Amino acid sequence: MLTGRQKDILSFIQTEQRDKGVTPSTREIQRHFGFASQTSVMQYLDALERKGFLGRHARKARALITPVQKIRITDIPIYGQIPAGMSALTEQDVEGHVSLDSSTVNASKNGRTFALRVRGDSMIEAHILDGDIVILEDRKDAQSGDIVAALIDGETTLKRYVMDHGRPYLKAENPLFPNLIPARELRIQGVMVSLVRKQLSRARRKRG
Amino acid sequence: MLTGRQKDILSFIQTEQRDKGVTPSTREIQRHFGFASQTSVMQYLDALERKGFLGRHARKARALITPVQKIRITDIPIYGQIPAGMSALTEQDVEGHVSLDSSTVNASKNGRTFALRVRGDSMIEAHILDGDIVILEDRKDAQSGDIVAALIDGETTLKRYVMDHGRPYLKAENPLFPNLIPARELRIQGVMVSLVRKQLSRARRKRG
DNA sequence: GCGGGTAATGTTCGTTTGAACACGTTTACT
DNA sequence: AGTAAACGTGTTCAAACGAACATTACCCGC
Q1: Which residue has the higher pLDDT, A80 or A161?
Q2: What is the CATH classification number for the domain harbouring B95?
Q3: For the CA atoms of A86, A91, A97, A102, what is the dihedral angle to 10 degrees?
Q4: Taking the CB of residue B154, how many other CB atoms lie within 10 A of it?
Q5: What SS3 state is found at A12?
Q6: pLDDT tens for each residue of B37-75
Q7: Do A30 and A105 share a domain, yes or no?
Q8: Which residue in A76, B42, B51, B182 has the most C-beta neighbors within 10 A?
Q9: Residues of B with catalytic function
Q10: In this predicted model, what pLDDT tens digit does every residue of A77-86 receive, in sequence order?
Q11: Residue at a domain's end among B54, B69, B84
């Protein structure tokens, strides 16, 4: 699709963007490739834009838009504990961040997306391990079978939401853990949409 | 840490960056906030830079660097099949991409990072499911216990690499699958460093 | 050998843009 | 009352920058 030279130009723009944080100007591209004129650069930019590998804002400086930029990155906060529901999402409770493209997370526009670090093995039969980062979406319309984060006795727990004859309860995916039947209210904080596991390297692992 | 107004400016810059793909110029910021002078903007930029919320390239146009940009995003190609080892990584075999910040992947500088979509349940006891995206690093120094992608009979498989009395073999984490003892050569293509699971929504799921 | 896409040069134009200077105003804390 | 910091105006300058025009050369299929 692209000429060898066109690929070079595009990859230079992307590399610069990554390293410097800013797309290069036509003159910078010119200098890097040893062109005697900017027009050469302009021709390449035209070609790249025509072929859809580049976006441009006319008459603006350094206004190239590379495919890398087009990827929608969602910056998801990881909460250690959510005490009082989604209303009190303070920076205080943030343990860290995960950033990933919104296409791999099924992130919808309306609901807020957040993450929890899993503690314990209560969901091990759903193949969710201690230390996993579970990404959830702030939705109230959980369906039976969904894995949800819910507020029980002031603690946030990750369980499978099951509707049994019109009565919902929280099912632990581990026979060693009890299911939770809510006394009155079941407060769902989010529905699991994705999971990220950081594989520990051999050195940091306890057992093989 | 930041003044209310300073936060406004910063958030405007970030929003613009996201929507347009380019950081706004001082004049654009000026216009948006209704300042009669650019100097106001300059003062805010100075403050934001001083407090570490912004990076700047002196004397360059639209050369603001927001915290969002500073996150190192790794764009990882997902391969359906790796036929002949890491040398022949053509765009042909790319099934898609995952983008996530290099801090959650244990991405080292030297090795190339790539991903595979898992097929089958042979690693289910290592809690890796059919459809999961496994992120690997192109390393040759696999240690016993590491989960690796290896080339067996022209097919790439994901197995646990086990060294047994100086003899390596590939262990399936599912009693229904056989372990693979290499006839002569064991070609390791990568070592698993991370995992991403896209939770299917209720509608697209076959069984609860 | 003719046309058309690609590649490159040399030059000029007008705007966009960051930066600086001098000065005025409000807010908040001592 | 004093003062420092944040906030704001008005103006000017030089550099950075995108864009355009005319011109030349190469390569490849027909």
Answers
A1: A161
A2: 2.10.109.10
A3: 50
A4: 8
A5: helix
A6: 999 999 999 999 999 999 999 999 999 999 888 888 888
A7: no
A8: A76
A9: 122, 159
A10: 898 766 555 5
A11: B69
